[in-house]
Specification:
This protein has about 230 residues and is an alpha+beta fold. It contains seven helices and ten strands. Helix 1 (about 1-35) packs parallel to helix 7.
Length: about 230
């Protein structure tokens, strides 16, 4: 009898855990959908003084793409092209994304994802990194959109990205890696930690807010960002 009673208690605890977990996931998805569809900020009309900025969606996360050089910022001084395998001096655009360092460096493909990497990322237990990719032209084989920023708001975006970087002697900290990426990729140390609340897409969304551009109230997914640019 005691064994049966103990077994029933264990089953009840397990069922409560499963139900609670499912309820949390459903609430998380509902919250992401609702807040992701509420828009803040506004678009800026193109003019001779505005700077063109792109957003790229690779299916899982969003990157911010900006001109390598402008009168307001030379990104090659922050992220030297020499830190890539290509060392291509003809690149015109730089793509910047923020995310979990373990995912970036140890999970180049989803098939290589380890439980320990995912667990650390979800529960604030790992550090962050910035993923930089250089382009000669904006890629056409992925979902992307673009908008225009005034010089004032572009400076705000620059400041937002700059504040996300870990620095040593005021210089960005390059991360040497053998991770399998392209010849135009590089990684740098970043502030913060990845979690269910603060994802790579949340970072981009906060950057859009910082520069007054259209964004979601909050979103952990690419869909919450691109929704406001598809209308």
């Amino acid at each position: 009898m005691k064994k049966n009673s103990l077994l029933r208690k264990v089953i009840r605890i397990v069922l409560k855990f499963i139900i609670g977990f499912i309820a949390f996931i459903l609430f998380y998805l509902l919250l992401a959908f609702v807040l992701g569809h509420i828009s803040v900020g506004k678009s800026v009309k193109k003019s001779a003084k505005t700077i063109e900025v792109h957003l790229i969606n690779n299916g899982m996360h969003t990157d911010i793409v900006m001109p390598i050089k402008s009168r307001y910022k030379n990104w090659s001084s922050t992220f030297p092209i020499e830190n890539t395998k290509s060392k291509d001096s003809l690149v015109q655009w730089v793509s910047i994304g923020w995310g979990d360092k373990g995912f970036y460096l140890h999970t180049p493909q989803w098939s290589e994802l380890k439980f320990s990497t995912a667990f650390k990322a979800i529960f604030w237990l790992s550090s962050a990194a910035v993923h930089v990719t250089y382009y000669r032209e904006i890629p056409k084989d992925v979902e992307h959109t673009h908008f225009h920023l005034s010089p004032k708001n572009y400076r705000k975006l620059i400041h937002y990205i700059d504040r996300s970087l870990l620095k040593q002697n005021r210089q960005s900290m390059f991360i040497p890696t053998d991770a399998v990426y392209g010849d135009y990729d590089a990684f740098y140390e970043a502030k913060g930690s990845y979690s269910l609340i603060h994802t790579c897409n949340t970072w981009v969304n906060s950057g859009l807010k910082a520069c007054g551009q259209k964004a979601s109230v909050w979103t952990p997914f690419t869909s919450g960002i691109f929704y406001h640019y598809s209308k």
